Amino acid sequence: MTATIRRTQAERTAQTTARLLEATVSALVELGYQGASTTEIAQRAGVSRGALLHHFPTRAELWVAAGEWLVERHIEQFRTAMSAISDESHRIDAAVDLLWQICSSDEHQAWFELSISARHEPELAATITTLAGHIRDRVRQTWAATFPELQGRPLATVAPDFTLSLLEGQAAHQMIDPDPPAAAAVISALKELAALHLVETETP
């Protein structure tokens, strides 16, 4: 007879929270900010609206939690992929490719949706400002941990902000006017710039 494995309250809470956050991101991507109502999100997560409000009493809290969940998911994806790269000479190129994959993903559109909607909603704008600062800090920390050998070099400090800004801008442009060859040219140019300014060169 198979024994029944009972989940603890903490495990049930964590699983419900994860479903709600994933449902929030998918609703933002597919329906936009206005369409991503708490009722819609609760239905997608398979919980009652009351259960959603129990975990996230306000929409602002839900947006922040979903944004943090998404960035941590992407950072883990980035770290896992980078740790599997054995050829040191290709690590920066690989990092650029990975970041482009993340920035151009459907999931990342959720961030664009929130950012655009924040222009007309002061409460959401305050939430997005806080979340953007958190994302910037996490990106910088991950960059420093991934490329410790580059820290202290010229342009190394601004490199993660520059890279993310460029890739997010290109991703936003792709949403309006898809042009894969043009995007590939931009990514290639970014890699060349990284090679010129970040890779160590010997000076006499």
Walkthrough of the structure:
The protein is an all-alpha fold. Helices cover 74% and strands 0% of the residues. The chain is built from nine helices and no strands. The chain has helices spanning 9-35, 38-45, 49-55, 59-83, 91-103, 109-117, 122-146, 159-176, 180-197.
CATH fold-level topology of the largest domain: Tetracycline Repressor, domain 2
Bin the strand percentage. Answer: under 5%
Based on DSSP secondary structure assignment, what is the total number of beta strands? 0
Number of domains: 2
Order of helices and strands: HHHHHHHHH
Cα gyration radius (Å): 20 Å
Largest sheet: none
Mind telling me the CATH superfamily name of the largest domain?
A: Tetracycline Repressor, domain 2
* Mean pLDDT across all amino acids: 86
Summarize this, please?
The chain is an all-alpha fold.
List keywords for this structure.
single chain; 204 residues; mainly alpha; Arc Repressor Mutant, subunit A; Tetracycline Repressor, domain 2; 2 domains; 0% strand
